[in-house]
Amino acid sequence: MTIPRSRRTFLRDLGLSGASLPFVAGLPSLQAAQNQNPRQRLIVVFSPNGTLPTQFWQDSPGPLKELKAILQPLAPFKDRMLMLKGLNNKIRGDGDGHQRGMSCLLTGIELLPGNIQGGSDSPAGWASGISIDQEIRNFLQKNPATRTRFGSLEFGVAVPARADNWTRMVYAGSNKPVAPVDDPYQMLNRLYGQSKDRATLAGLLDDVREDLTKVSSRISSEDQKRLKEHLELVRSMESELKRTGDESALVHPEPELDPNIELVNDNTPEISRMQIDLLVNSLANDMCRVASLQYMRSVGQARMRWLDVEEGHHHLSHEPDKNKNAQEKLLRINQWFAAEIAYLASKLDSLPEPGAEGSMLDHTTIMWTNELGKGNSHSQNDIPFLLLGGGSKFKMGQSHDFDGQPHNRLLLSLAHSFGHEIQHFGNKTQSKDGPLQLT
Amino acid sequence: MRLPFFSFVVIPFLMTGSALGQPDGRKIYVTHCASCHGDKGQGNEEEYDEPLWGRKSVESLSRYIHRSMPEEKEDTVIDEDAHAVARYIHEEFYSPAAQLRNRPPRIELLRLTNEQYRQSAADLIESFKRPQTIIPERGLRGRYFNVEKMNKEKEHVLERIDPVINFDWGSGVPAEKINQNGFSVRWSGSLLAPETGLYQFRVRTHNSALFLLNSFRGDDDKNSFIDAYVSTRNESHEKSGSKFLLAGRGYPVFLRYFTYKEKVASLHLEWKPPGGIWEAIPNDYLMPEVLDTVTVVGTKFPPDDRSLGYERGSGVSKEWQQATTYAAVELVNHLITYLGTVSGLSKEQRKDPAALRSYAHQFASRAFRRPLNAEQQETFVDRRFNNQPDPMVALRHSMLLVLTSPHFLYPKLAENNGPPDDYTVASRLALILWDGLPDKELLHAAGTGKLNQPEQISTQIQRMLHNSKTRRKMKGFFNRWLALDEQHDLGKDPSLFPGFNERLVADLRRSLERFVDEVAWSPRSDYRELLLDQHLYLNERLARFYEAEPLQGDTLQRVTLPGRSNSGILTHPFLLAAHAYHDNTSPIHRGVFISRKVLGRLLKPPVEAVTFKDEEFDPSLTMREKVTKLTKATSCMECHKIINPVGFSLENFDAVGRHRVSDNEKPVNTKSRYIDEDETAFQIGNIRELAELAAGSKPAHEKFITTLFHHFTKQSINAYGLDTTASLHAKFIKSGYNIRSLLVELTTLAVSHETEDKPLALK
Whose CA is closest to B569, among B540, B592, B597? Predict the structure, then answer.
């Protein structure tokens, strides 16, 4: 058994050498410190237009066997994976399938009647309740032990800038959509902007002082006094900035982003990696415990040229099953999403969890989900829910088939896994049977 | 007194002063006064800590000393002694001339005031694009479409200018041929901001609307300022947002609206300007042309020094230094993000290091108000670009250095010593008239050596005078002079004054602002009209409240009110209500305000501050009677003999500025005895007679002249020469009391002034 890194460092800080370890290890206080409140995280990843059921689901429930084609990129994580078939989005009411697929997905509640007209059904407004990630975020923020600077961060990749119920899945409450940030520079600025500005300033103030001194020497003595005061203030700002710059307790240095990537469709793969890097970095520096990563939007029509797919995603998803060409392209598309999640998972797995055993992935639940079960039928049954990672106490390495249970119950399970034991979530009828048995 | 025949030997001895000869004022002062007033009249912390200075004449001082000084030993210094010591102190340190002689004011090195910083930053960015031209037309241009499906414009039905966006269409339509089942509208134009400050905006609709204001991404709907796109159940919903805006500029507006298969249609575009109330954005502030964006520095600055009665950048504090530094960071971040939009550089140029370097150079020289010298070019441009591989980063550093540099923050550093050169003139003109940076025309004139002759300077002043930026600064002058933006609590007792609500007060303030603006920009621009004009600007609401002939609508119109004696600002209901209690008039507040601000009288703070407590008086007394009682002590009367007559002459206007003939069931008495600065008494029958007196009074003129001077130049008028006030006064009278001429004269004077500072040797 490897001595957990945290204990080792803890002991080192105490000034105890390795020689005294066996003697010290038995002290109860040391054990307790280790297990107290390890961090627990949730990341929701969204991709649109449904999946290819035969290329995704296991043939039967039970321990996970050979993964199907779409999930090949995630093979290394099989023993930490949980597949949940048979969960249906049963929320009806206003809005078409895509609108409800998107905005009822994490909220589990009806949309408000409104003016956004979809392809069919009645027009709709925003969701009428909070989404599960925000529910869990609020729960964690209330407790000082789990509170973080942001609580949650919402990342996007290639999300159109229109705000409507096709582009929003996160809600702070009824009628309160939360927009994802799909520009990595904007996100970088949000996370580190201030400190970057301060660093730039600290470097330049020296020149400001030089300039002031030169000017000072050329004016009358009465006026010099005023500039002298100004100079003093600049000097004190400079030393203040230098001082706080050294003390920044970032575990991981601020990531450097390539400044030349433009936000165009063809750069989506680079943007995706940049967003994932930022996401991992923000979790490593404990800026939040809840996050979401939204790829495009429901009805996403991205042309994934980097995969040699010229047609729009949504268009392809409506091709009949017998169109082998379309099916093959959809496979490539979904494998790409899986590969991005694999990148996210492996980055988290490469980082040790501060203050606990295992890697960060062992304390993070990634949930990959979708607006639809299947694209061409618009089915909202068998929504592809896939969980990855640890920290939830769910039994991983398994596949379940719930045979048509409302997905609200999964949302309840997620809340309960964080110790937030709510009785229902979203539509009361759909959640009345409580959380799913996943442990 | 006759001297004995042998006394010529002793005369020198006697001449030094004794009870036999003339009293020695200095000796008397040292013996009887200095212990409380200090040896130079500066005061004494334990006794009397105010410096001894004022505007009384020697005779007046002498009478005062005879009566009241020294305190508790009033009989000690009387008659000739009082006269002698009065003469002494008047000459040594008391009189304004003595004050100036002892501490001659100089033109100080001042930093930009907060307003000047913001306007200069906006000017700097604007200089790279087309300047704003405010046209006279008002309203927003709307293009109306019928739509099919959801918000797909099918048919352009009409285009027109809508005066305001305040529509309740119900189940009707805005115009013929518009389809109730589905239509959309695109409005475009600009919003004109009257003041600098934080504005709140609100879109209220039953349907779908997007509002873009000062958007740096053009009319691209995405990321709109207010997004009320998604509606619920066809119910009225509203979304609001706030933005910091700069006075005197226009901000591009795009408003998109649509409705589809909804029973009820409506749209309201509303705002709450600083110090204002929620209302549909009035027609006066909407223009149907789209202007370029304005780069607004919205960072909060600490308030400027107002100790001399006007805003000036005379101090640097930690808060100010930090605020300007972070403002520079925010500004540069914004510029780099929107470099394409604000710089006029093409995409290729933005990748070209030479183009970026050139832009940095221009940015610096415009910020510093003159071409860069070799040293500045090295520090601010070359050193950045030579040391930094990424030219965008170099540009960022260069701009940050420029904006935090004293060359930008202290405009005086752009001036040369001695006779002002062309660039000094340009810099001064822009700062005095516009609170900003020289524009293209000024820079061109300076660059071609055409800004040093009086005719050339005069031409530029005339050009600049009629630019909206000068109008904006003049508006600021009236705000300051009449203290319009100080937090007046105009709330009144609603049971006594029903209908005097926030809405009415907002209208009243606009009425006053309109009046002074019209006088200043009329052909004659006659100062006396400010005090004597008999009209009021009223709209429907105001006409009803002030019992004038009925008017229609929100627009202000110039009317007379028979039966009400109006006299310019002195009887404007806004000022009368502002300087009154919530349930009654206040002759003291009105008296103080008018005495100080209009009549130019010097009133020091009261020796004893006494609160007016209505319940302490016999309830049958009128306000006049109560005030008379309260202030009758001799020590109070020193100032109240000036204040009270002014206040009493306005007693025929109640606490909300309405005309009245009785107070507490007794007839109002507006007769009073006004004492001028020479202690001459005038019998005044009513405010109009007082106004006529004021319109010809030297202190009133001088007050106006110095206030205008200080507001525009931010320097002490005496720093330009001790005779400056007198000289401007003479010109003012000669011009027929023309306000614009006065502004031109003072600008010409300040711009042509030679700095006398001895330059130190260049190190």
Answer: B597
